[in-house]
Amino acid sequence: MPQDVRFDLPFDTPVSEHLEYARERHLRWVRETGLVRSRAGFEEYTSWDLPQAAARTYPHASAEDMVVLMNWFSLAFLFDDQFDAGRPDRADRIAEVARELIVTPLRPAGSVPRVVCPITLAWAQVWDRLSDGMSLTWQTRFAASWGRFLVAHCEEVDLAARGLAGNLGLKEYAAFRRRTVGIHHSIDAGERSRGFEVPPQVMAHPVMERMRDLAADTIGFMNDIHSFERERRRGDGHNMIAVLRRERGCSWEEAAAEAYDMTTACLDEYLRLEARVPRMCDELDLDADARERVGMGVDAIRHWINGNYEWALTTGRYAAAKEGPVATAERAGRGSVDDLLTV
Amino acid sequence: MPQDVRFDLPFDTPVSEHLEYARERHLRWVRETGLVRSRAGFEEYTSWDLPQAAARTYPHASAEDMVVLMNWFSLAFLFDDQFDAGRPDRADRIAEVARELIVTPLRPAGSVPRVVCPITLAWAQVWDRLSDGMSLTWQTRFAASWGRFLVAHCEEVDLAARGLAGNLGLKEYAAFRRRTVGIHHSIDAGERSRGFEVPPQVMAHPVMERMRDLAADTIGFMNDIHSFERERRRGDGHNMIAVLRRERGCSWEEAAAEAYDMTTACLDEYLRLEARVPRMCDELDLDADARERVGMGVDAIRHWINGNYEWALTTGRYAAAKEGPVATAERAGRGSVDDLLTV
Question: Which of A213, B143, B171, B287 is buried deepest, with most CB atoms within 10 A?
Answer without folding.
Answer: B143
